[in-house]
Specification:
Length: 223
């Protein structure tokens, strides 16, 4: 089954094509560009590029897998809107995966902290044991996270947030992956894809309110 994978939960804009079968997952094409301010400009061309590289058309897709965050409001919304609109247009199922889970799975065995940059001097984080999440996701300052994982037996950290705040977290940081890998995202959804499970609503994990919010109400006009 041919699956499109997208993730825009971090500064990395990711698009990939994967073949999902009973024997496993095979990546056919992938693109990644890192630019925190250009998610909207980068994702559509990346999707077109992976389809072209694989010699496929949108109508050849059987499903779409999207990283649902956590991530900053604007960037995360780009990937999810793209995935949802394509799924609806093509009448194929969409499946969501926590983007931190992809980092945790790709990190391998042991107890690992996965962290991405949440801005405002905070990180999105979750802890994993052998790729399985044991706590999180949450958003907090690196100092608070360091205190929380101290009693969890975490021995290493992974992700761009871990690199950014390595000195505060006080953990060895793995060089890779820094961003949610497409292969791990689709692997986490492979069982649902193969079972042809009903498509899911792609609900974003914002974990906090966006920087810009609508006014609570109209101010009275004084005359």
């Amino acid at each position: 089954m041919l699956v499109l994978v997208v993730d825009s939960s971090t500064p990395a804009v990711t698009a990939a094509l994967a073949e999902v079968a009973d024997r496993g997952v095979a990546m056919r094409a992938r693109r990644r560009a890192v630019d925190a301010k250009a998610h909207g400009e980068l994702l559509a061309p990346a999707v077109a590029a992976v389809l072209a590289e694989a010699g496929a058309e949108p109508r050849d897709l059987d499903a779409i897998v999207a990283g649902v965050g956590p991530g900053p409001f604007t960037g995360l919304r780009v990937g999810l809107v793209t995935a949802a609109s394509m799924g609806q247009t093509l009448d194929i199922p969409t499946y969501g995966v926590c983007s931190l889970d992809a980092l945790g799975l790709a990190a391998g065995g042991g107890r690992v902290l996965a962290a991405t940059d949440a801005r405002r001097k905070e990180i999105y984080w979750a802890a994993y044991d052998g790729g399985a999440r044991v706590t999180g996701p949450d958003v907090e300052t690196p100092a608070v996270v360091a205190e929380r994982v101290a009693g969890l037996g975490v021995t290493a950290a992974v992700g761009e947030g871990a690199h950014r705040y390595a000195g505060v977290l006080g953990l060895p940081v793995l060089d890779e992956p820094r961003y949610p890998p497409a292969a791990a995202l689709v692997e986490l959804a492979a069982e649902r894809v193969l079972a042809k499970a009903p498509g899911e609503r792609l609900t974003p994990l914002y974990l906090r309110r966006p920087d810009a919010v609508a006014a609570a109400g109209r101010k009275p006009v004084l005359r």
